[in-house]
Target: Glycolipid 2-alpha-mannosyltransferase
Amino acid sequence: MMLRRLIRPARRLPWVYILPVLGLCFIEVLIHRSQYNVPRPAHELDEPFFKGCQEPDVNHPRENAVMVMLARNSERDAANRTIASIENAFNKWFKYPYVFMNDEPWDAKFIETLNKTAGGRATFEVIPKEQWTFPPSMDAKAAKQSMKEQGQRGLPHAGSEGYHHMCRFYSGKFYQLEALKKYKWYWRLEPDVDFTCAITYDPFVHMAKNNKKYGFTIALWEVGTTCPSLFRDIANWKELHNIPSNNLWKAAVQASWVPYPFRQMLAYFMPHTDRFGDMWSLCHYWSNFEIADMDFFRSKGYQDLFEYLDSKGAFTLRGGVTPPSMLWPHDLLYQCPANAPDLQLTEAEVLLGNKPYWPEKPGGVGCRCRCDGDMPRNHPGYCLNKLKQPNTRARPWLTWLL
Ligand SMILES: *[C@@H]1O[C@H](CO)[C@@H](O)[C@H](O)[C@H]1NC(C)=O
Ligand SMILES: *[C@@H]1O[C@H](CO)[C@@H](O)[C@H](O)[C@H]1NC(C)=O
Model:
């Protein structure tokens, strides 16, 4: 009798409890997600500094800046192509110096060829061994074993020791290189890159003037398997230092649809989540084209973050922070805007040269761009828009599911 009484009501009752609980969960999720809504700015945050062509203002004082390239002796032709291209598109007017970096001694032939193409403004540095190696805290043998395993799992480049050293070098050591200490700004170049538009203004000058720290051209989804714990590590570091979530942080997070406390429990099993269960959107920008203020990377805050990630083996034990140019052929992913109408300065310009015809298109922003058979394109990617204009409401349906 007692037993029956206990069981019978239990058969009917669940919905009476479950429905309100579901309702509360739903409301909790809505409130939680609303904390990640980021207001859309009234206008594009980063308009190009100029549209179309300028007559290069070569009398304006230069910034304290340098063009840098990490290359190997075997990449001489590819490096030469990049330098010829950037000289022609930009640096023949502004004449910034170049620093080439190698983890091995340079071939005389490389130096001769590249210095010549660089207009005699190049120096050639060998990266000190202590900056091109494993973190001091790490057992090199264990690290090598881990790389071997990553390689066997088919992670791109993960099996190569040099690749990990490069990730680590570019992420934290590069800014401390003796040869670069005297510079504030750098423009990173890679072998085998073609600059398809004329850059007729000095981006260093205009970044300084507009208080910009970092410039990039492409933002895409990361290959998630290369860095399963990167976001967790960074989120933990952020928490450790009591850094509040600003809009850019929120814009990089996909707030979870799972109610508390289950999302926090799921976080134990899910990669790319912070410990509260919210997920990184995998959006990141590509560092193979970047113009940046090295003082930012030399700051205590950044170096602290680097040391923290380094101590977690982020650049060695796992795939590291991938410079994705190595994952994708350059000719698949590029920026080549259409040319700005009536702004090509095709008549009687002094430095630019008087060139007869450049295809123009309404809405174009470029200066004398030639996309060489490829479509002109001003990469409209989801990630790029998201980083430029944080707005969680305008998500494509796919990302709602993530
Ligand atoms: C390097 O590039 C320059 C400019 O395009 C070219 O004239 C030169 O032949 C190239 N040198 C080599 C060794 O390929
Ligand atoms: C590069 O060329 C310039 C001018 O020809 C020369 O003065 C300089 O010593 C060269 N640099 C190297 C590293 O060879």
